Amino acid sequence: MRYLAYHENAERGTFDFPVARYYVDTRHPRYEMPFHWHDECELIRMRQGTFCLSIAGTASTLQSGDCAFIPGGVIHGGRPQSAVYECLVLNMEKLLQGSAGRQTQYASALGNGAAIQTEFPANSEAGTVIGRLFEAMEKEQTGYEFLVTGLLWQWLGLVLGQGLTVAVEKPEPHGSDLKNALQRIRRDYASPMTLADLAAEANMTPLYFCRVFRQVTGRPPIDYLNYFRAECAAEMLCATDASVTDIALACGFSDPSYFIRLFRRYKGTSPGKYRKGRGNGNPFARHTHT
Question: CB atoms < 10 A from the CB of 96, how many?
Fold first, then answer.
């Protein structure tokens, strides 16, 4: 089993409707959001609780009702706190296909050092439209694809018309180098791995790598590696009947006792209690369009 890929390259939705919705609550094995990226854009809506979101090393806090926009290709992740949240992952280029004029206008508005802002407060006009987007995706009433497409156009119109953009001063620092290190963690988390190994993937010295990695993820590299392993273990606890010892070994922990201590540190409970608390229903139940 492999945890949700750092670089997600799965097709979202369908060819002519490239939008997918994900619903996540505290029982979901992917409740936490390890750092990753994908080529599509993403919208997040908070239904309750708090979400500490980091995008390319810039942190923001979302409260109930708030929404956020994440551009494609950018490293992002976060930590929900007593939260229920939803994500819409969408291919903006495909949505704009067939309308050359709008495609040109969109590229012109956002191609000169500008980007769509991250946060859209609960009571803002643009935030309200995003909320209606999620509601339409959830209900899936006949013709909802037209409604969703129209609301996306309306939201983009508000973004461009109201100047809901921010200046982009410089590209994501060391983005491609850090992606190499994150890919290594995702690919080889079950194998022994050192700080030197990860620094080499990023083509940096270990000291400099530690500083850059922590700026983006908020954690030192080895702490993040263990956190990611614990998240993989949490997923296996929900999705398999494997023993705690077998899961520990499969996720890169050679000492089951050490694994239990680390799991408790990251998840706030023991592996056994975590599994019992999420034993009802399909642990991967989520609303998606594939």
Answer: 19
Q: How many helices (H) and strands (E) does the chain have?
A: 11, 10
pLDDT greater than 70 at residue 68: yes
Highest CATH level, class, for 7-167: mainly beta
Residues 175-277, CATH architecture: Orthogonal Bundle (1.10)
Domain positions in the chain: 7-167, 175-277
- Label the pairing between strands 58-62 and 41-55: antiparallel
DSSP states of 174-226 as a string? THHHHHHHHHHHHHHTTS---HHHHHHHTTS-HHHHHHHHHHHHSS-HHHHHH
* pTM (predicted TM-score): 0.80
- Output Rg (C-alpha) for the chain, integer angstroms: 20
* Residue 38 near residue 11 (C-beta atoms within 8 A): no
Q: What pLDDT was estimated at residue 283?
A: 43
**Per-residue exposure over 176-200, b if at least 16 CB sit within 10 Å of its own CB, e if not:** ebbbebbebbbeebeeebebebbbb
Q: How far is CA 268 from the centre of its chain?
A: 21
The answer to whether 64 touches 222, Cβ cutoff 8 Å, is no
Q: Are 283 and 238 in contact (CB under 8 A)?
A: yes
Task: Share the mean pLDDT of the chain.
Answer: 86
The helix (run of H) or strand (run of E) holding residue 244 is: helix 244-250
**Residues 6+ positions from 198 with CB-CB distance below 8 Å:** 181, 184, 185, 209, 213, 221, 225
* Each residue's pLDDT tens digit, 150-194: 999 999 999 989 999 988 766 566 778 899 999 999 999 999 999
Q: At what angle do helices 144-161 and 100-110 cross, to 10 degrees?
A: 40
Residue 215 tokens read as: 């700026």
**CA 137 – CA 102 distance, rounded (Å):** 23
